[in-house]
Design goal:
Blueprint: H1 6-21, E1 26-30, E2 36-37, E3 42-50, E4 53-63, E5 68-76, E6 95-103, E7 112-121, E8 129-138, E9 140-141, E10 146-151, E11 164-175, E12 180-185, E13 188-189, E14 193-194, H2 222-229, E15 277-284, E16 290-300, H3 302-305, E17 309-315, E18 323-328, E19 336-340, E20 344-345, E21 350-356, E22 366-371, E23 383-384, E24 387-390, E25 401-408, E26 411-418, E27 421-422, H4 440-458
Parallel strand pairs: 2-9, 14-15, 20-27
Antiparallel strand pairs: 1-3, 3-6, 4-5, 4-7, 7-8, 10-11, 11-16, 12-13, 12-17, 15-16, 17-18, 19-21, 21-24, 22-23, 22-25, 25-26
GO biological process, one term: homophilic cell adhesion via plasma membrane adhesion molecules
Protein name: Immunoglobulin superfamily member 21
Keywords: Cell membrane, Disulfide bond, Glycoprotein, GPI-anchor, Immunoglobulin domain, Lipoprotein, Membrane, Postsynaptic cell membrane, Repeat, Signal, Synapse
C-alpha cells in the first residue's frame, strides 16, 4: 500500500466532497401537440434532462379548472432496475430521458391540460427529492355530427296578398369548436347583411321594416281599380320600393272581398335582388360540443323563389371538406288522398288522410278541409290538419264532396274527394239521423213492436 502524498490526498477528498454537495439539476418539458380529432391516437411525450438519480415520474390529467388532478400514469424507480446505470456518482453526466403516455382513441372528455411531474434524488442526500414538472393542453376537436335545414315558424298561417318575411334555419350539432356556417342559393354564395347575436333568453328575431308591394289586377276589386285610374287609389307600380324586409299590414289593407280571391299568388313589386339578413349563434352542449344555428331571412317572392335551391354549408377544422344540407323551396302540387274504410257504411268512422304530393314540398304546408256546399259533420265550416275524421257517418252524407286545400308561402293547391256511403245491414234503413241516433217515428215504431212482442210472449 502506497498512500498518496498528503497534499494530493487532501485535494481528492476536497474534490469528491464538493462533487457530492453540488446540487443535482432537472429540467422537464412536454412536446407541444397540434389540435387532434376525436378518435385519433395521441402520444403525450415528456422530456427531462438530469444528472441525478431517478425517483419517480407521474402524469396527471387536470380537471375543474386545476382544482382536481387525476393520476393517469406512475413510474416508481424504487421498484424498477431499469435505471441502475444512474448509480455512478463519481461522474457528472447529463442524461436525457422521455416518458410517454398514449391515448389510443381520444374523446371529447380527454380535452384539457395534462402535467408531467419528475422527481430525482438530491446529490447531497438521498432523503431529499428534487421535483420539476411540465404541462400541456390537449385540444380535442370534433367534427359536426349532423346538419339540417328547416323553415322557421312553419307551418303557420300567412297572407297570399302580402309580401312577407321568410327564414331558413340551419342547425349544426356535435362540433367542437364552433363551425363556420354559410348559405348558398343555386350553388352560389349568398351575400347577406350580418345581424348581431341574440342575448341569452331572447326570443326569435322578427324584423318589421316595410317593403312596398303591389297587387296584380286579378286581386284588386273593381272599385279600387277605378279609383286608381283617377289617381286616388293604390300607388303606381313604377314607384321605387324602399329596401328592407316585409312587415304586417293593417287589417284594412287585407280586406279583400271573397269575389276576387284567387288561388294564384300576386306579383309583388320587389327590388331586383333579394336583400338577405344573416345571423349566427352557438350554444355549448353538456358533452363539450357546440350547437350552431344560422338563420337567413329575406322577403319571400313566390314568383322567383319557387323551386329555388338553398343549401347550408359548414366548414370545420376537423373536416377535410365542407358538410352540406340543401332544400328546394316548392309549392305543393297534387295532394294524394286516401280514405278508410274504402267501402264506408252507415255508422262507420271515416278517415280522409293526405299521404303525400306529386312533388317534394318545402316548407311544410298547411291543410284545410271543407265540405263543398255545406258544413262539416260536426257543424264547423272547416278543419285544419292532414286528417279529417267523420264519426258515425249517416246515410245523408252519401255523395258529399270534400275539399282539401294545401298551401305554403309559395303556393296553394286543392284536391277533392267524394264520400260514398253504403247501407249497413246491421242498421235498419232510416233509423239514424245526422247525429247517428234513432229518429223519432222509426224509433217509436221499433219500441212499440218490441213491447208488443214481449206482451204476446207473456200471455
Amino acid at each position: 500500500f502506497n498512500p498518496l502524498p498528503c497534499p494530493l490526498l487532501a485535494a481528492h477528498i476536497c474534490f469528491f466532497s464538493f462533487f457530492l454537495t453540488f446540487p443535482a439539476y432537472l429540467t422537464v418539458s412536454i412536446e407541444p401537440l397540434p389540435p387532434v380529432v376525436v378518435g385519433d391516437a395521441v402520444t403525450l411525450k415528456c422530456n427531462f434532462k438530469t444528472d441525478g438519480k431517478m425517483r419517480e415520474i407521474v402524469w396527471y390529467r387536470v380537471t375543474d379548472g386545476g382544482t382536481i388532478k387525476q393520476k393517469i400514469f406512475t413510474f416508481d424507480a424504487m421498484f424498477s432496475t431499469n435505471f441502475s446505470h444512474m448509480e455512478n456518482y463519481r461522474k457528472r453526466e447529463d442524461l436525457v430521458y422521455q416518458s410517454t403516455v398514449r391515448l389510443p382513441e381520444v374523446r371529447i372528455s380527454d380535452n384539457g391540460p395534462y402535467e408531467c411531474h419528475v422527481g430525482i434524488y438530491d446529490r447531497a442526500t438521498r432523503e431529499k427529492v428534487v421535483l420539476a414538472s411540465g404541462n400541456i393542453f390537449l385540444n380535442v376537436m370534433a367534427p359536426p355530427t349532423s346538419i339540417s335545414v328547416l323553415a322557421a315558424d312553419t307551418p303557420a298561417p300567412f297572407s297570399r296578398y302580402q309580401a312577407q318575411n321568410f327564414t331558413l334555419v340551419c342547425v349544426v350539432s356535435g362540433g367542437k369548436p364552433a363551425p363556420l356556417v354559410y348559405f348558398k342559393r343555386d350553388g352560389e354564395p349568398i351575400e347577406a347583411t350580418p345581424l348581431p347575436e341574440l342575448p341569452a333568453g331572447a326570443g326569435s328575431w322578427a324584423p318589421r321594416n316595410l317593403l312596398h308591394r303591389d297587387l296584380d289586377d286579378t286581386k284588386v276589386p273593381k272599385s279600387l281599380a277605378a279609383e286608381g285610374e283617377v289617381g286616388g287609389g293604390r300607388p303606381p307600380a313604377t314607384a321605387d320600393p324602399p329596401r328592407g324586409l316585409a312587415a304586417e299590414r293593417g287589417p284594412a289593407t287585407e280586406a279583400i272581398p271573397e269575389t276576387v280571391v284567387s288561388r294564384e299568388f300576386p306579383r309583388w313589386v320587389h327590388v331586383a335582388e333579394p336583400i338577405y339578413y344573416f345571423r349566427h349563434t352557438h350554444a355549448p352542449v353538456s358533452d363539450g360540443t357546440v350547437e350552431a344555428r344560422a338563420t337567413l331571412t329575406w322577403t319571400l317572392n313566390p314568383q322567383i323563389d319557387n323551386e329555388a335551391l338553398f343549401s347550408c354549408e359548414v366548414k370545420h377544422p376537423a373536416l377535410s371538406m365542407p358538410m352540406q344540407s340543401e332544400v328546394t323551396l316548392v309549392a305543393p302540387k297534387g295532394p294524394k288522398i286516401t280514405m278508410t274504410p274504402t267501402r264506408a257504411r252507415v255508422g262507420d268512422t271515416v278517415r280522409i288522410l293526405v299521404q303525400g304530393f306529386q312533388n317534394e314540398v318545402f316548407p311544410e304546408p298547411l291543410f284545410t278541409w271543407t265540405r263543398v256546399g255545406s258544413r262539416l259533420l260536426d257543424g264547423s265550416a272547416e278543419h285544419d290538419g292532414k286528417e279529417l275524421v267523420l264519426e258515425r257517418v249517416p246515410a245523408e252524407l252519401n255523395g258529399s264532396m270534400y275539399r282539401c286545400t294545401a298551401q305554403n308561402p309559395l303556393g296553394s293547391t286543392d284536391t277533392h274527394t267524394r264520400l260514398i256511403v253504403f247501407e249497413n245491414p246491421n242498421i235498419p234503413r232510416g233509423t239514424e239521423d245526422s247525429n247517428g241516433s234513432l229518429t223519432g217515428h222509426c224509433g217509436f215504431r221499433l219500441v212499440l213492436a218490441l213491447t208488443l212482442t214481449v206482451i204476446l210472449e207473456l200471455t
